[in-house]
Amino acid sequence: MADTPLERIASKWWVPALIGVLSVAVGILALAYQGITLLALGLIFGINILVYGMFALMAGFEPGAPPSHAVLRTVIGIVAILAGLVLIVRPGASVMVLVIAVGFWFVLTGVADLMRGITQPGQRFLSIALGVVSIAAGVIILGDPDIGLRTLAILAGILFIVRGVFEMAVGWELRRIHAA
Questions:
Q1: Going by fewer Cβ within 10 Å, which terminus of the chain is more open, N or C?
Q2: 168: closest CA among 180, 160, 178?
Q3: Chain center to CA of 129
Q4: For position 180, what pLDDT does the model report?
Q5: Percent of the chain's residues with pLDDT above 90
Q6: Helix axes 95-119, 149-179, angle to 10 degrees
Q7: Angle 38-60/14-32 helices, nearest 10 degrees?
Q8: What is the DSSP letter of 90?
Q9: DSSP character at residue 120
Q10: Mean pLDDT for the chain?
Q11: What percent of the chain has pLDDT over 70?
Q12: Domain boundaries, the chain
């Protein structure tokens, strides 16, 4: 039985590892099919963000989580689930909706990762780096919402891969902590 918050988190090492694998897969698809239609791109991002939102929402209700983390993860989970559902239900509604949803998702998850890196022991560097990369991605996307779909696909693909690699690294580090 896990005694400390870090041990409880480490026992679920597979969650960030799985999210990382999914993010890398989405990034590769976005780069491989840059000419992809808005419908398919919206569906891919929508599914990825929906899955992330479900895991973030579950993390918000994790027993023993600090209240600030629980509230932030719950809010991020709800926003990500809603954004994912919008992208799945209406993926072709507007390029702007897609750009804004992806931009806000990157900013919100980046803030959560920064908070985790600053306040929790272990994997601080990875969490802070992941937070900075995600916030930068969100700011870039939100800063120029008129970027074309192909540019969005390339930028989002690269950033999903980078984020996925960091998430997998966090998962493997938690696995190491859990095994110790």
A1: N
A2: 160
A3: 13
A4: 78
A5: 11
A6: 30
A7: 170
A8: S
A9: S
A10: 82
A11: 88
A12: 10-179
Which tokens go with 123?
């994997």
In eight-state DSSP terms, residue 61 is T
| Six token digits for residue 134 | 């995600």
69-73 CB contacts, 8 Å cutoff, 24+ apart: 69/112, 69/115, 69/116, 69/119, 69/120, 72/111, 72/112, 72/115, 73/112
Could you tell me which of 20, 11, 19 has the C-alpha nearest to residue 179? 11
For residues 64 and 42, is the Cβ–Cβ distance under 8 A? Answer: no
Question: In the structure encoding, which two tokens stand for residue 137, read together?
Answer: 């991605």
Q: Locate 177 and state its tokens.
A: 């902590």
> How many Cα atoms within 13 Å fall on the side-chain side of residue 85?
8
- At 142, the pLDDT band (50, 70, 90 cuts) reads confident
**Residue 64 φ then ψ, to 5°:** 85, 0
Which residue is associated with the tokens 């579950």?
Answer: 58
Please tell me which of 11-25, 36-50, 113-127 the model is most confident about, judged by mean pLDDT: 11-25
Q: What does the alpha-carbon distance between residue 161 and residue 158 come to, in Å, rounded to a whole number? A: 5
Q: Tokens for 3?
A: 């005694």
pTM, rounded to two decimals: 0.58
What is the rounded CA–CA span in Å between residue 131 and residue 121? 16
Does position 94 have pLDDT exceeding 60, yes or no? no
